[in-house]
């Protein structure tokens, strides 16, 4: 509770209770007695007025009334005539005679000043201390009709006693009130500060960017309304910070993507320039040679021209491949899908390759589970895929000179495999061969006029078809494969 509102509230309420109790005790001790005595005097005056009004010189008519008043004041009433003789006295009827002061009708107890005032027609009230019992009494004397005098005597010792009792009782009441007040102050301060402590906990969590804690609204008082506002603030902050984080992540991803694109662009330009450098240099050199006419021999001239044509063709292939690739990568390329017989397509392609296969003495065998298998795809693009794979197989086949094409029926799909005997592709490179311009053996690629774009084009076409594809090293060679849907 150190320095808390709860502590302040508790001390405040307890202090307040202490002040109230002390004040009440002080007022009691100081003024209770005076208040009682004043009240007593007032009532004596009132009774005297009553008797004055009702007394017409005949005691019998107000006999009962006087007895009642005596009862109320707890004292006695005497009426004397102008000679001092008693007309009425309760003293004798109550059998309390014998006391000197009563024998003179009580009037002798008055001071001279009192006697003078009564005889002057004024009502007078005096107090006197009983000489024997040391008790105090009020003595009221009031003139009545016929020169009769009313004397009322009321002891006040009983009042003093009551006041004393009340005072001591008040100490107990004070202690008990203070005790109960302190306990209530403690409970009240706890009840009052509990929601504030809860609010503080919610705010603390919020400061640590934890927005899961919420204030539980109970009865919609001012603190609960503050709680509602804090809950609202927490929700708002939560969404804003989440959105900000997402935007930040997206921005980072965009920057990273941009950086990657920039890197790819630079790589691409350097690769293209690199691919073009050799043919341009060769064309430049050989055409200058022709122009300088250093060569007289017709055969040499033809050779020069062949080199120039050959290099120009390579550049033409490179440009066509690049255009092809950029079309496929654009994201807008539309496949013309149709259902066609895959075995027939493979056979057609192989027919076109016959001359070169014969020339290189390569055996190419096709195995199909079912010669009637149909697949769904863009015919010319799938032809491009097969041509690329077969071209690569021809370019990389070893002395065993064997190429196999398998067409396999796989339930919903058809799997096509192109296997050639030859060197396997090492683990580091097997993933990279699908990248643009990537060639495992650069000088060998140059021999067969490869630019390293073939497999990138294949990859883009198969991705557009949502096909699975890959390459694995097999016993004594490599196997490229891809899968196609049977139905469109
Ligand atoms: N059947 C294969 N056997 C061994 N290596 C292969 C085979 N097919 C491709 N590769 C390797 O993958 C590389 C990339 O092949 P890709 O078809 O993309 O390019 P390329 O054949 O060299 O040139 P391009 O196809 O553009 O004329 C090749 O350079 C070669 O190193
Ligand atoms: Mg190739």
TrEMBL record:
It comes from the Bacteria. SUPFAM superfamilies: ATPase domain of HSP90 chaperone/DNA topoisomerase II/histidine kinase (SSF55874), HAMP domain-like (SSF158472), Homodimeric domain of signal transducing histidine kinase (SSF47384). Its main location: membrane. The chain crosses the membrane at residues 9-27, 169-188. It is a multi-pass membrane protein. It is found in: Cell membrane. Keywords: ATP-binding, Cell membrane, Kinase, Membrane, Nucleotide-binding, Phosphoprotein, Transferase, Transmembrane, Transmembrane helix, Two-component regulatory system. InterPro entries: HAMP_dom, HATPase_C_sf, HATPase_dom, His_kinase_dom, HisK_dim/P_dom, HisK_dim/P_sf, HssS/ArlS-like, Sig_transdc_His_kin-like_C. GO terms for molecular function: ATP binding; phosphorelay sensor kinase activity. One of its GO terms (cellular component) is plasma membrane. Its EC number is 2.7.13.3. Residues 190-242 form the HAMP domain. It is an enzyme of class 2 (transferase). Residues 271-488 form the Histidine kinase domain. It catalyses: ATP + protein L-histidine = ADP + protein N-phospho-L-histidine. This is histidine kinase. It comes from Maledivibacter halophilus.
């Amino acid at each position: 509770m150190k320095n808390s509102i709860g502590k302040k509230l508790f001390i405040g309420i307890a202090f307040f209770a202490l002040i109230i109790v002390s004040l009440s005790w002080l007022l009691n001790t100081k003024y209770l007695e005076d208040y009682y005595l004043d009240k007593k005097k007032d009532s004596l005056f009132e009774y005297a007025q009553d008797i004055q009004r009702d007394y017409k010189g005949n005691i019998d008519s107000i006999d009962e009334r006087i007895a009642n008043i005596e009862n109320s004041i707890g004292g006695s009433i005497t009426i004397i005539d102008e000679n001092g003789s008693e007309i009425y006295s309760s003293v004798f009827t109550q059998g309390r005679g014998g006391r000197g002061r009563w024998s003179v009708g009580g009037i002798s107890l008055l001071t001279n000043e009192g006697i003078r005032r009564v005889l002057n027609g004024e009502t007078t009230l005096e107090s006197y201390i009983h000489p024997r019992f040391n008790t105090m009494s009020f003595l009221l004397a009031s003139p009545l009709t016929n020169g009769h005098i009313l004397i009322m005597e009321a002891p006040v010792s009983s009042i003093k006693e009551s006041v004393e009792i009340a005072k001591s009782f008040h100490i107990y009441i004070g202690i008990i009130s203070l005790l109960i007040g302190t306990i209530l102050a403690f409970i009240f301060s706890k009840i009052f500060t509990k929601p504030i402590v809860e609010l503080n906990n919610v705010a603390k969590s919020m400061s640590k960017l934890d927005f899961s804690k919420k204030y539980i609204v109970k009865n919609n008082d001012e603190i609960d309304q503050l709680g509602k506002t804090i809950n609202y603030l927490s929700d708002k902050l939560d969404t804003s910070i989440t959105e900000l984080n997402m935007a930040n992540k997206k921005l980072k991803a965009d920057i990273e993507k941009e950086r990657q694109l920039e890197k790819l662009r630079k790589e691409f330009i350097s690769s293209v320039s690199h691919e073009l450098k050799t043919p341009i240099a060769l064309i430049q050199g050989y055409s200058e040679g022709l122009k300088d006419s250093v060569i007289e021999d017709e055969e040499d001239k033809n050779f020069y021209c062949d080199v120039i044509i050959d290099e120009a063709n390579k550049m033409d292939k490179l440009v066509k491949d690049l255009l092809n690739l950029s079309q496929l990568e654009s994201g807008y390329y539309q496949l013309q899908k149709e259902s066609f017989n895959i075995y027939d397509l493979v056979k057609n392609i192989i027919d076109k390759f016959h001359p070169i296969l014969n020339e290189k003495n390569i055996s190419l065998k096709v195995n199909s589970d079912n010669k009637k298998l149909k697949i769904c795809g863009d015919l010319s693009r799938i032809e491009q895929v097969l041509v690329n794979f077969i071209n690569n197989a021809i370019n990389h086949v070893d002395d065993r000179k064997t190429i196999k094409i398998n067409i396999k029926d796989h339930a919903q799909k058809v799997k096509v495999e192109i296997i050639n005997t030859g060197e396997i592709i090492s683990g580091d490179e097997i993933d990279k061969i699908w990248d643009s311009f990537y060639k495992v053996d650069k000088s060998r690629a140059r021999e067969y006029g490869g630019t390293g774009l073939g497999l990138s084009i294949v990859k883009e076409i198969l991705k557009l078809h949502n096909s699975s594809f890959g390459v694995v090293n097999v016993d004594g060679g490599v196997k490229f494969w891809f899968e196609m849907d049977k139905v469109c």
